[in-house]
Amino acid sequence: MAGIYIHIPFCKQACSYCNFYFLTRKELVEPFVDALIEEILSYRSHPFSEQIIKTIYVGGGTPSLLNHQQLKQIFDALRDVFDIDAEEVTLEMNPDDVSVEYLNGLQDLGVNRASMGVQSFDPALLLFMHRAHDPSEAEQALEMLRTANFPSFTADLIYGNPGQSLDQLDRDIDRLLSYNPSHVSAYSLTVEEGTRLGKQVELGRIDVPDDDIVAEHFDLVEKKLLKKGIKRYEVSNFAMPGKEAIHNSNYWRHVNYLGLGPSAHSLFWADNGACRWSNKKDIKLYLSKDWDQLIDEETTLDLVDLAEERLMLGLRTVEGISPGEMKSLYGYELTEKQLEWLIGQQKEGFILLDEDHIRLSAKGLKIADYLILDLISKR
Fold first, then answer.
1. CA distance linking residue 354 with residue 344, whole number of Å
2. Residue 73 sits in the same domain as residue 198
3. The overall pTM is greater than 0.70
């Protein structure tokens, strides 16, 4: 059982907060698709070709910049090389790219889940984020998903923006919920080094909201989504029961995954550990189709490495982690010091302990990264 992630590194323009690898050179799209197909074919004799592929996620960048024929070529190549029995096939898209015809074409290719990059319906915030769409395009795109009877979709929402009021956020959430999303990914605005936003903050041109304001924003998001039956299952992800993202959930559970395209990451289990590698962020090298040179770094992870990573990923989910599973899969047992720490955090209301599960409480999930690092350091 495995998943495939494909990185499409093209965007119309740079969003102010984004630090993903992307390009705006549309003339490279066609040669990129040719190279991507060659990379897919290069895995014909790799152990991944023997895996049953249960999920495919096409991300970026902006995959919806690719036309139907280009996407068909990619999916045909995937089916030629891999044993695909996909439960979930997701494609990220921007509101200004889609039409009902385009969405119907995606379904013909087997795409059954759309990831719509809404972020906000507020024109001033969209301008601040340097998004390519406007509020009306976002609403039209969500209506098109309904018209095309798309099986499932998720929408992205960003909160904690400079100057964003609770009333603005409240309106954003209400407008999104009017389209009955089954899944919402809600992210606090993060200032990343090397981005347009990062530079503005560094120069003192923008002040980001303090933690208390961001916490109020998050509480509003969670409260309003919960009223619609959309429950949090991971720090930043909310879903109707049964509509959780399978592909992303498999990342958190260390299911094998193959990354294709520049900057994509892969993980493959071997005896007593796993191998992780990534592709270089270099479109020129990628278009040269020199696959041996494309690998940026290859790391062997032993069971302790994997166990600690599983702790970090699993405790960010509402499901939490099972000490029994940690022992059986990784040979990892919590130390007396860690157990004492857990009991102390339970008394403080940050940790929930029951039978064979460790979870963070709603209070604990707000400071998940801090708590997880503290737990690991106690070993």
1. 15
2. yes
3. yes
Using a 10 angstrom Cβ sphere, with 0-12 exposed, 13-18 middle and 19 or more buried, the burial of residue 159 is buried
Amino acid present at 124: A
- Any idea what DSSP says for residue 108? H
| Residue of 200, 17, 261 lying closest to 119 (CA atoms) | 17
User: What's the average model confidence in pLDDT over 230-241?
Assistant: 97
Asked, for residue 296, whether it belongs to a domain, the answer is no
Encoded tokens for 212: 């208390």
Strand ranges across the sheet with 295-302: 231-234, 237-239, 183-188, 153-159, 113-119, 83-93, 52-60, 2-8, 256-260, 265-270, 273-279, 295-302
Can you tell me the distance from the alpha carbon of 245 to that of 140, in angstroms, rounded to the nearest whole number?
24
* pLDDT grade for 355, boundaries at 50, 70 and 90: confident
Token couple for 133: 């769409």
| Confidence at 176, pLDDT banded by 50, 70, 90 | very high
84-94 exposure pattern, b = at least 16 Cβ within 10 A, e = fewer = bebebbbbbbb
Report yes or no on 58 lying in a domain. Answer: yes
How far is 111 from 203, CA to CA, in rounded Å? 43
Q: What is the CATH number of the domain that holds 185?
A: 3.20.20.70
